[in-house]
Amino acid sequence: AVLCGTLTGAVPVLAKDAEKYTNTDFAMDTVVSETLYTTGDDLNTEIGNKLREIESGLLSWTDEDSQISKLNAAAGETTEVSDELAGYLAKIEQLAGDSDGAFDPTLGKVIRLWNIDGEDPHVPEASELDALLKDVGYQKVTLDGNKVTLAKDTTLDLGAVGKGIGCGVISEFLKDQILNLGGSSVFAYGQKPDDSPWKVAVSDPRDTEGEYLGAITIEGGEFLSTSGDYEKYFMEDGKRYHHILDPKTGYPVWNGLTSVTIICDQGYLADGLSTACFVLGMDAAKPLLEKYDAEAVFVDEGKNVYVTSGLMDKFELMKDGYIVNEL
Q1: Three-class HEC string of the chain
Q2: Which residues neighbour 272 within 8 Å (Cβ) at sequence distance 6 or greater?
Q3: Which residue among 58, 89, 156, 263 sits deepest, i.e. has the most Cβ atoms within 10 Å of its Cβ?
Q4: pLDDT in 10s for each residue of the chain, 327 residues
Q5: Beta strand pairing call for 185-188 and 222-228
Q6: Is the sign of the CA dihedral 296, 175, 15, 48 positive or negative?
Q7: Could you give the CA distance from residue 175 to residue 171 in angstroms, rounded to a whole number?
Q8: What are phi and psi of 305, to 5 degrees?
């Protein structure tokens, strides 16, 4: 899932005299607006610094000093990576295999060809896509402990799970808090100072005014991520070309879905599953959700909202015109 927007955090404390700290920053290609409730120090600056460290040292495909960038530069050879990155790659490869490639970390060149969030978004020629798709495929990444081998001309791009990884790392740093990264990747733990539940707003995929479709109550230790066709897209000849691409075809996914929201217990997984489930479609996604013990909210073009049974009591519809169904 691709994220843009804000980051908010709240350290849950039982004391009612917790201080509120706010800060606006920029990290991981998004505006970061942080809010912390704590009786301790203001940690906002450290949060921003840590997010930038994750991006520049680990995840960035443009920063020559990042581990991912060095892996891509050494495609065709074997490279040794840190325990941290090796751990993420093993989990990511597992998700790619379990989703039958609906989530694929080698799609970066195709994403950049579309340039959907750049200055020249356009529909590529089929020949251009075919030339790049021959180097796409999670099977082209071989892991042996800390040793990683990419097939020649294959590149890794962890953008679809990067914000989720960031949520996980920052959650370990802050502990007992809620963290909202980019508006669609959220982590919660513990309680707010007033003991009220954490509620996360879900965007209406077709509301250009920014009104919300609904709200989901999340528990401590849960991560939430949303992928939608409204986040980054352009229109051409009346057709919406969005950023969620099918790794098998190289084209945006058009299966009737407009957004997928995932709730589970790991940040990278919520991020990756929201993309995979959008690509798979609702019916094909069910076994994947069951395998990872994840809950989901699917929204389609017919303004139907499908909510898994474990979320029915935690989802609150806020917008007229939609119908909620139990999945």
Answers
A1: CCCCCCEEEECCCCCCCCEEEEEEEEECCEEEEEEEEECCCCCHHHHHHHHHHHHHHHHCCCCCCCHHHHHHHCCCCEEECCHHHHHHHHHHHHHHHHCCCCCCCCCHHHHHHHCCCCCCCCCCCHHHHHHHHCCCCHHHEEEECCEEEECCCCCCCCHHHHHHHHHHHHHHHHCCCEEEECCCEEEECCCCCCCCCEEEEEECCCCCCCCEEEEEEECCCEEEEEEECCCCEEEECCEEEECCECCCCCCECCCCEEEEEEEECCHHHHHHHHHHHHHHCHHHHHHHHHHCCCEEEEEECCCEEEECHHHCCCEEECCCCCEEEEC
A2: 92, 95, 103, 160, 161, 164
A3: 263
A4: 222 223 333 333 333 445 665 655 555 555 555 455 554 555 666 777 777 788 777 888 888 888 999 999 999 999 999 999 999 999 999 999 999 999 999 999 999 999 998 888 999 999 999 999 999 999 999 999 999 999 999 999 988 888 888 878 777 776 645 566 555 677 776 666 677 778 888 999 998 677 899 999 988 788 899 999 998 899 999 999 999 999 999 999 999 999 999 999 998 999 999 999 999 999 999 999 999 999 999 999 999 999 999 999 999 999 999 999 999
A5: antiparallel
A6: negative
A7: 5
A8: -115, 120
Q: What would the two tokens of residue 42 be?
A: 């203001």
